[in-house]
């Protein structure tokens, strides 16, 4: 899959129980990395076992809700030195303001708690374990560059982590740590398909029609698979990206050009 060699490097990946996070884990495992995988659900243990079986090495799997500051500090504080931190965990609910309810208010708050505060907590806990040459990569989104009706919470959170990334890049550059973001477009994951089904139901239209609305303008048609996004993380974590920091790398089949 890759010519990158991460042998002997410790890579921590949040949101790694499925989708893009799990694909990233497989890619780094294939490149020789020592892995710590985190997610809020029990599925992280099966994901860790899956990756370990594929690479033939132990994989540390931690169940941890990154919105729980104390739990994050305890989990990450017990880890060995970290070379690469990938803040991938995210929550993508619908949060319409038109006809907002207590449920949508709660979803908005949870979205900010996971995507923004959780990213801060994880980075805050990991930074003392990182040294010169370290890499921090944040998963933003093409919606972190634009917006989407009915998803103000998610879009706001992804704009926020982009600003966090840029500020942190300026702060940590003198310490020899780079900080960048990957902005995926439409990837066929459990989360993205749940989002599409929920929005299609809200709009009263068939799922294929909504998919066409989102993907129809892409220069390269169709949804990506999670494994197609993973090489961007490998590159930004590699020695070849030592001079790249504070940047947002789109992997989106051209759905956002600008």
TrEMBL record:
<feature type="domain" description="Ketoreductase">
    <location>
        <begin position="9"/>
        <end position="189"/>
    </location>
</feature>
<comment type="similarity">
    <text>Belongs to the short-chain dehydrogenases/reductases (SDR) family.</text>
</comment>
<dbReference type="InterPro" id="IPR020904">
    <property type="entry name" value="Sc_DH/Rdtase_CS"/>
</dbReference>
<dbReference type="InterPro" id="IPR057326">
    <property type="entry name" value="KR_dom"/>
</dbReference>
<dbReference type="Pfam" id="PF13561">
    <property type="entry name" value="adh_short_C2"/>
</dbReference>
<dbReference type="GO" id="GO:0032787">
    <property type="term" value="P:monocarboxylic acid metabolic process"/>
</dbReference>
<dbReference type="InterPro" id="IPR002347">
    <property type="entry name" value="SDR_fam"/>
</dbReference>
<dbReference type="InterPro" id="IPR050259">
    <property type="entry name" value="SDR"/>
</dbReference>
<protein>
    <submittedName>
        <fullName>3-beta hydroxysteroid dehydrogenase</fullName>
    </submittedName>
</protein>
<dbReference type="InterPro" id="IPR036291">
    <property type="entry name" value="NAD(P)-bd_dom_sf"/>
</dbReference>
């Amino acid at each position: 899959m890759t010519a990158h060699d991460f042998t002997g490097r410790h890579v921590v990946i949040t949101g790694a129980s499925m989708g893009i996070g799990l694909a990233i884990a497989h890619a780094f495992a294939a490149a020789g990395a020592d892995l710590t995988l985190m997610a809020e659900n029990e599925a992280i243990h099966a994901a860790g076992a899956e990756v370990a079986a594929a690479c033939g090495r132990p994989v540390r799997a931690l169940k941890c809700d990154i919105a729980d500051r104390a739990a994050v500090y305890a989990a990450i504080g017990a880890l060995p030195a970290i070379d690469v931190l990938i803040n991938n965990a995210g929550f993508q609910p619908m949060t319409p303001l038109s006809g907002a309810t207590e449920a949508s208010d709660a979803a908005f708050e949870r979205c900010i708690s996971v995507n923004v505060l959780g990213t801060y907590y994880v980075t805050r806990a990991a930074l003392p374990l990182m040294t010169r040459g370290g890499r921090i990569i944040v998963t933003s989104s093409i919606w972190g560059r634009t917006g989407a009706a009915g998803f103000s919470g998610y879009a706001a959170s992804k704009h926020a982590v982009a600003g966090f990334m840029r500020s942190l890049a300026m702060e940590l550059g003198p310490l020899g740590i780079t900080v960048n973001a990957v902005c995926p477009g439409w990837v066929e994951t459990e989360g993205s398909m749940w989002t599409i089904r929920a929005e299609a139901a809200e709009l009263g239209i068939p799922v294929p029609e909504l998919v066409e609305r989102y993907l129809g303008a892409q220069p390269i048609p169709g949804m990506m698979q999670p494994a197609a996004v993973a090489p961007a993380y490998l590159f930004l974590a590699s020695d070849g990206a030592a001079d790249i920091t504070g940047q947002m790398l789109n992997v989106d089949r051209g759905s956002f050009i600008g």
